[in-house]
Amino acid sequence: MNLSPERLHARAAMVGLELDGRVVERMLGYFELLRRWNRHLNLTGLQVEDVSDESIDRLLVEPTLASRSARAVESVIDVGSGGGSPAIPFALGWTPNPMLTLVESRSRKCTFLREALREVGLSGRVVSGRFEDLAKRPEEAGRYEALTIRAVRTEPGLWESAHRVLTAGGRVYWFHGEGQDLPAEKGLIWASPTPLVPTLGSVLSVGTRH
What we know:
about 35% helix, alpha/beta, Rossmann fold
């Protein structure tokens, strides 16, 4: 069963989110591509074949809602991009859309991500490999204004790498569940978590590089 525009509008409206027609069209294109590829490649464990409310909220509504409270930027890097959420809907929620760098260690998922960028008309690149290795490259230092991350093990080296690739004043947008402690490592100043979709128990924590 395909996801209809009416259903996406309805789920977005439940959290006070309004979507224009072009954004909806692009999100539906991304979701349908994800649904087709997920039949043969494990891109998400959420129910996207017989589309569940949770899958719509988690994959599309949550990152789009977060983007509305984020400042506009020109460059975003996403860590452990997997099936493309939150990075792709997050970028679609901004006007103008930023340049995306998607970092994913699994080559088959990288193939999907490249196709997803083409499908929705976002400019960017997909890097196959570990984020910590990418962050060590001299040309990546201070390159990005924003970094997004969800469903990735948040080990100390991760935040050090995030600090390395962000511009001064650049921000980390960390999607996670309620009750998780904020990182204590120096270099990022964290604001209090902001609730996102109540039914998911999800929050957004924003860390600013100083």
